[in-house]
Amino acid sequence: xxxLAESGGGLVQxxxxxxxxxxxxxxxxxxxxxxxxxxxxxxxxxxxxxxxxSGAYISYADSVKGRFTISRDNAKNTVYLQMNSLKPExxxxxxxxxxxxxxxxxxxxxxxxxxxxxx
Length: 119
Description:
- The chain has strands at 3-7, 10-13, 18-25, 31-39, 46-52, 58-60, 68-73, 78-83, 92-100, 108-109, 113-118.
- The chain is mostly beta strands.
- Strands 2, 4, 5, 6, 9, 10 and 11 form a 7-stranded mixed sheet that branches. It has a 4-stranded antiparallel sheet with strand order 1-3-8-7, with no helix packed on it.
């Protein structure tokens, strides 16, 4: 089964940038889509961005559209989330997840990385 490890989180001032990375190992050949999710205290987990294997189809939450960019490097088994113009409301734990071919749900998850944006 796949293991996902997020990195790149941290503390940044509003307006700053961070790039999150998700390194995948084991079972990566089954990956149909990767996604970034986030969960803030007291809030439900929400989808931030998703990308299919080819990279041709990408989706973003309205709240991050134009500021965040998801990308995928299959040769490196890594997915990225470039976050620009960060806002305090972006503060959350960010999770990487994988959806396998033949499945409808994202069912493999990383441990998460904390992103904190100060004003």
